[in-house]
Amino acid sequence: MPKTKGSALIQTTATSFEIIHVLQENGPCRLSAIASELGMPESTVHRHLNTLHSLRYVSRCGPKYQIGLRFARLGEAARTRDPAFRQAKDYVREVAEETGERAQFVVEDHGLGLMTSSSVVDNSVSRSG
User: Comparing C-alpha atoms, which of 89, 69, 80, 79 is closest to residue 113?
Assistant: First the structure.
């Protein structure tokens, strides 16, 4: 459970995100595996998964649950929230072309680095047989 400074967490929200993180780390999982990993009753995990599924944040493939594609849309919104991120994309491409090397733009958020733009120039060498 994450620690907070000077404020209380809403347990229900924290539990839903714990479930999401299990799916992120492990890929598609059965209800029983998620409940076991989190040490929670299956009934509790099932209620959270049903809610997340109805909101399209989790999808099902047979008996397994997985991260829903709705997170991709949120990720794109976060990645492009600042005009500087969009400007960096052009600059990264330009640097890659000028140097002939891979160029990346990474931003920090909550102590983690996230690559928001990457460009690679094809400098492959042709070999004849």
Answer: 79
